[in-house]
Amino acid sequence: MTAGPIATHCPYCSLQCGISLASRDDGTIELTGRDDPINRGVLCIKGANAAELLGHPERLGTPLVRDGRGGPLLPASWDEALDRVVAAIRTAQARHGPDAVGCFGGGGLTNEKAYQLGKFARVALRTSNIDYNGRFCMSSAAAAGTRAFGVDRGMPFPFADIPEADVVLLVGSNPADTMPPAMRFFADGRERGALHVVVDPRRTATAELAHRHLQPVPNTDLSLANGMLHIAVREGLVDKSYVAARTTGFDAVRRAVRSDWPDRVERTTGVSVAEMTETVRALATARTAMILTARGVEQHADGTDTTQAWINLALALGLPGRGAGSGWGTVTGQGNGQGGREHGQKADQLPGYRKLANPADRAHVAAVWGVDADELPGPGVSAYELLDRLGTDAGVRVLLVAASNPVVSAPNASHVAERLDALDFLVVTDFFLSETAQRADVVLPTTQWAEEDGTMTNPEGRVLLRRKAVEAPAGVRGDLEILRALADRLGRGEYFPTDPREVYAELGRASSGGTADYAGITHDRLAAGEELFWPCPTPTHPGTPRMFLESFPTADGRARFVPVTPRPAPERPDADFPYLLTTGRSRGHYQSGTQTRRSPSLQHAEPEAYVELHPELAGVIGVVDRARVRLSTPRGSVVLRARLTPGIRRDTVFVPFHWGGASGVNALTSAALDPTSRMPEFKTCPVAVEPADAHPGDERAPTGSSAALPS
Ligand SMILES: Nc1nc2c(c(=O)[nH]1)N[C@H]1C(S)=C(S)[C@@H](COP(=O)(O)OP(=O)(O)OC[C@H]3O[C@@H](n4cnc5c(=O)[nH]c(N)nc54)[C@H](O)[C@@H]3O)O[C@H]1N2
Ligand SMILES: Nc1nc2c(c(=O)[nH]1)N[C@H]1C(S)=C(S)[C@@H](COP(=O)(O)OP(=O)(O)OC[C@H]3O[C@@H](n4cnc5c(=O)[nH]c(N)nc54)[C@H](O)[C@@H]3O)O[C@H]1N2
Ligand code: SF4
Ligand SMILES: [Mo]
Distance between CA atoms of 611 and 629, rounded to whole angstroms? Predict the structure, then answer.
C-alpha cells in the first residue's frame, strides 16, 4: 500500500463507481464504496468483490514465451520476450509490408493507454491495422449519434438528469443488472412520479421496476420505433416548431414511416397498437422526456439504423437539447467505453475524434506527434474484419492484443480462434492468462486498475482520475512501459513517454480543437475535485455537462433526421433453427469473464453459464429446470443448464456470454456486420433448442471455465 485509504475507481463497467482501498494490519486490502457523485458509496456485487483480483494466485508475474510451435508457455525474461516480439514484427513487415502487423485494443484501457496504443500503431508500427472491442459494443450508437448530432457523446447530459425526466423510455438496456448503482437515478424519478417504460424481449430486473414493459420480438426495434413515429405523426404529436427550428430532413422520415401502419408493426413486433400509442402519447405530452438505448438496440446487423429510428422519434418529439431531463442517449458499457472510442484506437480515427482520412486532422496530430503527416498510414478495417483475415494474404500476420479476450467475446468465436491460430505470431498483454492469452506466442504481464494512475471517461463524458492505490507485483510492467520498450526496439522509443500525466498532456494537445476536446481537462484539475465533462477546450473552461442546448455541432447547427426502413434479418428462423437466440449479461460476471470468473465470491454466486427459456418452450422440447439443453446454430452447438423463467418470450432464449470453452455462446452467434458501424449481430440469430441428454455421447457437464481456473 502506498498510503491508505486511497480514492480510486472500480475495475469494471462504465459507471466507474468510486472505491476506497486501504490496507489492513494483516496485509489484506479493504475495499469500500466511496461517496462519489455517481455511486454515492454503493457498489454492485462485482465492484464490491474487486479486491479479490489484487494479489490473486493466478496473477501473471512474468512474461511467458511459447517453447517452439505448439509447445507450452514458459516463463522468460522481459528482454527475451520483447526481443521475440520485435523479431516477429520485423520479419513480418520485411516480408509483407507494414500492414502485416496489427493491434487489437479495448475499451477498458485508460484514456492514456488507448491514446498511446493508437499512436504506437501509426508511429512505431506504421500500420493501418488497428481496431478494438468497442466495435462490438456501442459503435452503432456512435455512428447514429454522429450522423444525427455531429458528435458521439454517449449521454449528452449527466446521469443526474434522469430523475428530472417525467417519462423515460429505456430500450434494450438492463441497468438493474449491468449498472445497479445507477438505478438510484431511476428510482428518484419514479418517486417524483415519473413514468418508466422498458422495451426488452425479456422481463428483466429493470423491466420489473418500470411501470410498463413492451416485449418485442428480438431485432424488431426499427419497426417499433418507426411505428411509434407513424402514430406521433398521425395524432399530431410532432413538435413542429422544434422540428422547423432545430432539425433538417423530417419530410423524408415522415414519408419513410408512412407505411409503418401500427397494426402491421404490431404483427412484426408483438407490441400492441395500444401499448405503442400510450407510450408515444406519454413521451409527447410530458414536460420532460428521455429515450435511452443500449446494446439490445445496437448489437444488430442494422444497429445503426435501429438506433437512428429511436433518435428520429426523439427528434420528432423535440427532446434533444430541450434542457434538463430531456433527450436521447446511449448507455455506454465498458470501463472506459466512452474515452476508449475517442483517442485513436479505432481503425479510421485519430485522437479527439479526428479522422485519418482528413488532411487537416492528419496535419494537426502529426505536428503534435512530431512526425511527418505523410508518414501516417490510412484507415484500416474494423475489428471483426481484422480478426476474420488474420494469417491470410490480405490480413495481419502478427497481432498485438491489449485489453480484450476475443476468443470468448467475438462473434463466431470458433472461427476467430482458428484465425488467431493461423497467425505467424500472437502477442497478448494481460494480467491473467485469458483464453486468448492461452493461444499466444508471447504473453506480457501488465499492471491492473488499482496499480496505476490514469483517466477514464464515463458515459456522460465526465473524465475521472483513477489512482494508483497499491504497488504492482515485481516483474509486471504497465501497458505504457510495454509500448515504450517495444518502440525502443523499433527505433521509435523517444515518441513514447511512460508517465500517464505526460501522456495525458499530449493527448490534450492532440485533441485540442477536435470534437472531443480534452485540452482544458488536466490531472491536476481532476485531483482538485473539479467535475469536468468534455468538450473542455481551455484550463479555465468549466466543461460541458449538457450539450445541444443552443445548437448541434453539425455544419448548420441543426440535428439531422435520417430515413431508415427495416431490412430482412441476415438469418431467419426455419424448421431447423426455429427459435431466436439473444445474448447479453448477467449481474455477477463481467464480459469475457477473465476477471470475474477468477473471483471466488462471484464464482460462488454465479458458478456456470445457463440458458433462460420460457416454461412453455421447455415443455414443448421436453426439458425441466436445470436440465441440460443443447443450443445449435449453423456455426456450432453448446450445452447449457436450463433456467426456466416466464419473463422471456416463448420464441426466444437468452444466454449470457461470460463463459468460454464448452459454454461459450459466441460459438453460436453470427458475424453479420452492420454496413455503417461494422458492429456484429450479437443479439439475434435463429437457434435450435433440444434436450442435451437426447444425444448420448455428449455427457460432458458444461464447465465453461478454462482448465486454469479454480474449481
Ligand atoms: N454485470 C455486468 N454488467 C456490465 C457488463 C457485464 O459484462 N456484466 N458489461 C458492461 C458493458 S461492456 C456493456 S456494453 C453494458 C451493456 O449493458 P446492457 O445493454 O444493459 O446489457 P445487455 O445484457 O447486453 O443487453 C441489454 C438488454 O437487451 C435485450 N435485448 C436483446 N435483444 C434485443 C432487441 O432486439 N431489442 C431490445 N429492445 N432489447 C434486446 C436483452 O434482453 C438485455 O436485457 O454492461 C456493462 N455492465
Ligand atoms: N454474445 C455476445 N458477445 C458479446 C457481447 C454480447 O452482448 N453478446 N457484448 C460485446 C461487448 S459490448 C463487449 S464490450 C465485448 C467485451 O469483451 P472483451 O473485449 O473480451 O472484454 P473483456 O472481457 O473485458 O476483456 C478484457 C481483457 O483484458 C484484460 N484487461 C483489462 N484491463 C486491461 C488493461 O488495462 N490492460 C491490458 N493489457 N489488459 C487488460 C482483462 O483481464 C481481460 O482478459 O464483448 C462483446 N461480446
Ligand atoms: S456498477 Fe460497474 S463500476 Fe459500479 S461497482 Fe458495479 S461493476 Fe463497478
Ligand atoms: Mo460493451
Answer: 8
